[in-house]
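From the methods appendix. Each design record in this collection lists the tokenized structure first, followed by the designed amino acid sequence. Records were kept in a plain field format so they could be parsed without special tools. The example shown here is representative of the layout used throughout.

RECORD:
FOLD TOKENS (328 positions):
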């Protein structure tokens, strides 16, 4: 995922700090606040805490430059990847390519800014994160949760047997629901949706049998004049057409793919059984498409990593945080 020097995409979401569900009903169960999360996070930064992740633990995440102003907390989040290929640069004048080779202890390095608003609605705080390779809202949630593996940051409570135990908070970060789907349905900009059927095929020619996933798909285009009360009705209609096309009445793999006005392609999986249930609402799909926004217009080129917070990036992210619709 190459990063541009002229613009970035930022994800918008909410962060909520909760008491673990299994002890919420206990008398005297401890509560946690965002301020306590930040305090623990600050200690972890000072201690140069890192978290390894990835299938082979070849990536690491850490943070620096935690600061605050009257409205927000903000910091720089970093990711290193030891398995990423060395970067190469081609000079169009000389026609030569140079390669920056990593050593045994080197990692490719990416950074992003994170901003969290202090004000909250029903305990939820707005969060805005600059997207970079392996840096997402879900990754940050895992990182903040891991910070509380240190008993120094945990709180005590007494269980039903009057035994003293330690607990850590539940840090919940969710993407801010995108208005893309609802708006596209209202304005007729929803151009199509795609259904995918998967089939496992065993390769018997090898000593070690392999399973190959074969996909059959069909893209349906939506007419501007199509009349549907809501997205569920539209997808049910498409589902029936897909079953006619594929001859498979038990199809469970369905994907909705849309394209935003800014050129982003977004796709999410939809459980066909969910569409037929009473619990299905547009909100289910809106949450699947996290609200993203493009920031650009920088006088100084953006880099792959940041040694410290860039005020110009932070300013644009702050404007986005303050312009989000009221939380529900």
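DESIGN:
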């Amino acid at each position: 995922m190459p990063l541009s020097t002229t613009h970035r995409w930022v994800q918008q979401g909410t962060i909520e700090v909760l008491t673990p569900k299994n002890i919420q009903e206990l008398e005297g169960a401890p509560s946690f606040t965002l301020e306590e999360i930040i305090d623990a996070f600050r200690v972890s930064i000072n201690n140069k805490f890192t978290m390894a992740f990835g299938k082979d633990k070849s990536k690491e995440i850490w943070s620096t430059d935690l600061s605050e102003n009257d409205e927000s907390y903000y910091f720089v989040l970093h990711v290193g990847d030891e398995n990423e290929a060395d970067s190469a640069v081609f000079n169009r004048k000389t026609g030569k390519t140079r390669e920056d080779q990593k050593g045994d202890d080197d990692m490719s390095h990416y950074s992003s800014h994170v901003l969290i608003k202090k004000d909250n609605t029903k305990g939820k705080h707005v969060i805005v994160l600059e997207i970079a390779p392996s840096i997402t809202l879900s990754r940050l949630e895992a990182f903040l949760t891991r910070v509380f593996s240190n008993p120094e940051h945990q709180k005590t409570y007494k269980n039903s047997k009057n035994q003293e135990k330690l607990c850590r908070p539940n840090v919940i970060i969710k993407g801010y629901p995108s208005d893309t789907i609802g708006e596209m349905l209202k304005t007729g900009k929803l151009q199509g949706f795609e259904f995918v059927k998967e089939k496992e095929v065993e390769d018997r020619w090898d000593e070690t049998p392999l399973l190959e996933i074969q996909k059959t798909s069909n893209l349906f285009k939506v007419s501007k004049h199509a009349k549907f009360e809501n997205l569920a009705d539209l997808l049910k209609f498409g589902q029936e057409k897909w079953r006619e096309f594929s001859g498979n009445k038990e199809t469970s793999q369905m994907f909705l793919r849309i394209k935003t006005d800014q050129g982003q392609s977004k796709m999410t999986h939809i459980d066909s059984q969910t569409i037929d249930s009473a619990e299905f609402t547009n909100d289910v799909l809106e949450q699947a498409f996290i609200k993203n926004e493009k920031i650009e217009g920088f006088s100084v080129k953006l880099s792959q990593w940041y040694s410290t917070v860039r005020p110009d990036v932070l300013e644009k992210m702050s404007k986005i945080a303050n312009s989000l619709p009221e939380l529900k």
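APPENDIX NOTE: The longest strand covers residues 7-18.
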